[in-house]
Amino acid sequence: xxxxxxxxxxxxxxxxxxxxxxxxxxxxxxxxxxxxxxxxxxxxxxxxxxxxxxxxxxxxxxxxxxxxxxxxxxxxxxxxxxxxxxxxxxxxxxxxxxxxxxxxxxxxxxxxxxxxxxxxxxxxxxxxxxxxxxxxxxxxxxxxxxxxxxxxxxxxxxxxxxxxxxxxxxxxxxxxxxxxxxxxxxxxxxxxxxxxxxxxxxxxxxxxxxxxxxxxxxxxxxxxxxxxxxxxxxxxxxxxxxxxxxxxxxxxxxxxxxxxxxxxxxxxxxxxxxxxxxxxxxxxxxxxxxxxxxxxxxxxxxxxxxxxxxxxxxxxxxxxxxxxxxxxxxxxxxxxxxxxxxxxxxxxxxxxxxxxxxxxxxxxxxxxxxxxxxxxxxxxxxxxxxxxxxxxxxxxxxxxxxxxxxxxxxxxxxxxxxxxxxxxxxxxxxxxxxxxxxxxxxxxxxxxxxxxxxxxxxxxxxxxxxxx
Length: 468
What we know:
alpha/beta, 22 strands, globular
């Protein structure tokens, strides 16, 4: 654990297991009551130091972190592949994105502006001058998921540091090792002691104790809807931002190059075995294109290479845990019993789920209405574009969706109709760059990530009014 600038052992340890081989690749200490208390005290004491750091110094540290991540990208990508099962080519992509995330944060650290308020807009305000500044909230708790164990950590740590907060990081129990390496990098980059504290343990124990503590001003969480609901209920009066996932849909209305679109949607559906918040789960295809689309999609699905995540040619690696195989097989069994047709897939070897394609599905099936978080996709024909837009909306989620069309009227109709945090036109809903506002509506979450937008969540507005 990293508490108040010191690397500390624990009395109890949890194993970290390679989900592909089952091999134990590391052990991390489980935080006890004393560790939790010391991490909070450290963050509280250092919050004054972090707040006092000038913007140029925060930017310098963040820029240095970005460079060090780039310098160690091969090593860090291998570690992600080992502990998460992410294919190495996707792991390398995550490392590059994390370096970029810290670089964006270094820029935003110098642009955390307030504004001048025209007080004379009101007759009683003509003798006054006012402006606002943004001030850090204080201690931020970040609880992060397994699927992007570095870049989604970066999306919480980087804006917290850029905005002058201190932070307690509790990474996912399945993927804690890369957070350890990031702690080393932050220390080496010159971050003052105590501004970041990294402790490990289960969400139901360590995570909840931190969430409930009134000395923490904000909780930022990425993970499942059920856990997010618990955090929202238990956090009390503190600020909470939640990124909770989706059952992402894409509408294929008209395309110029069907093969190119299918290639893109294959990646969107199956990259990292579908264990991405914005993985494609539902594909609605204009009936005029449906037969050709389905044939080509099945062909490309069967071409996906399954194997060791460390093999650079691997497309499909393991699920994060054997329990996920059991869960998705049960969901597929239910779908078949309710009339779904499984065209390919529906089998597993070890901890690897083969990419699976369904048709003849309905919204009552869990593979449609819930977040599948596996390499499983349903393809549905439609006759009317407006009806397809309504089908996209028929869900409790609203993170991102995609629409393929060149018709400007249909584009504007999609913009007006689809209820999501992000709508991607002529690309898959799995698209994200790390400075854009990212987050959902409905039960997909509260608040936005993306450095500028996360900093707004992590700061308060302080108004200064001066009588002339």
